[in-house]
Design a protein that fits this description.
This protein is mainly α and 325 residues long. The chain is built from 13 helices and no strands.
Length: 325
């Protein structure tokens, strides 16, 4: 490992390189905070992949890329006379000292556990944000799973949490039932009609088709309401616009209930010490391994996936599972 002097020298060299890049490289010179934002997100996800794969070499590389971005943002702000890398570091130092009195105060850390530290952390953040709400620090642009985790941790730290872990399952079941009810309502909602040109002919039904002989039993005659005589006018049919509005409303309700399900499941994961982002990433990787196996096996047999039946694909999928993929 390096000495403190070597570490400071390396960071100083990075600052010097950024100075030259901003002055001498056209691409680097025209970047702004806004243009860097998406690139920074990509770097964060690449770092996350490296950490999840426990690849120390890639983690080192991605940390370097992220450090470059921090220096980049600082340099742009410095050019505008707003702040520089020293201001950023100093502000973070002051914040850490303020939020860790058990380390930096005379009282010391004796008798302080991790739970107490976490609770005190949120209380001290409240003092910093006087007049603001506890959840104001949760970024709106954060990925939804991460945002839910942040929200739940923050309210937990001020006592808004389940008394015991098993209590959460009733809420999970309640939310799943409500989502299922809305999803079934979607199944029953009338499908919006598609418009066609006024001069377009109706679709022809072949004369030898069973459909031309009699209506399907599952499709009742809707031209005359039950109990009406043939000369009784039928009620006005639902207009395409009304059907579309009904479907959209049902879709929104189902979407809201699905959000409640996911939020409840993330809450359950938190209570059991499971990172839902890691869990879902593992499942995605597992699915990808098995689907890649299915695809490769199909290609080797000289066939295309779209030409296979679902039972044939299921058989290869189970083969992939048996191989531990």
């Amino acid at each position: 490992m390096h000495t403190r002097e070597e570490k400071l020298e390396a960071v100083g060299r990075l600052l010097d390189i950024m100075d030259r890049l901003r002055a001498e490289c056209p691409w680097n010179g025209e970047q702004t905070h806004d243009s860097l934002r998406q690139l920074t997100l990509e770097e964060v996800f690449e770092l996350s992949d490296a950490v999840l794969s426990h690849n120390d070499s890639d983690t080192e590389k991605e940390l370097g890329d992220l450090l470059l971005h921090i220096v980049f943002y600082a340099k742009i702000a410095e050019e505008k006379g707003l702040y520089d890398i020293a201001d950023i570091a100093s502000r973070e130092c002051e914040k850490m000292v303020f939020r860790h009195p058990h380390v930096f105060s005379r009282s010391g850390s004796e008798g302080v556990d991790a739970k107490t530290v976490s609770e005190n952390w949120e209380l001290r953040k409240l003092k910093e944000r006087a007049g603001k709400h506890i959840l104001d620090g949760v970024p709106e642009s954060a990925p939804s799973v991460l945002k839910a985790m942040q929200i739940q941790r923050k309210v937990r730290d001020v006592g808004f949490d389940w008394e015991s872990r098993p209590d959460v399952w009733a809420k999970v079941r309640e939310e799943i039932a409500e989502f299922e009810a809305e999803a079934r309502a979607l199944d029953a909602a009338p499908a919006p009609e598609t418009s066609k040109p006024a001069d377009a002919p109706d679709a022809a039904t072949p004369s030898d088709s069973p459909a031309s002989a009699a209506p399907l039993s599952s499709a009742p005659d809707t031209t005359t309401p039950p109990g009406s005589t043939s000369d009784t006018p039928a009620p006005a049919a639902t207009t395409p616009a009304a059907a579309a509005g009904t479907t959209a409303s049902a879709q929104e309700r189902a979407e809201e209930e699905l959000g409640d399900v996911l939020f409840a499941l993330i809450n359950a994961a938190r209570l059991y010490g499971i990172d839902p982002e890691v869990a879902l990433s593992r499942t995605c990787r597992k699915f990808r391994r098995r689907f890649d196996y299915l695809e490769d096996r199909t290609i080797r047999s000289g066939r295309l996936l779209r030409d296979m039946t679902l039972p044939e694909m299921d058989a290869i999928w189970e083969e992939a599972k048996s191989r531990g993929l």
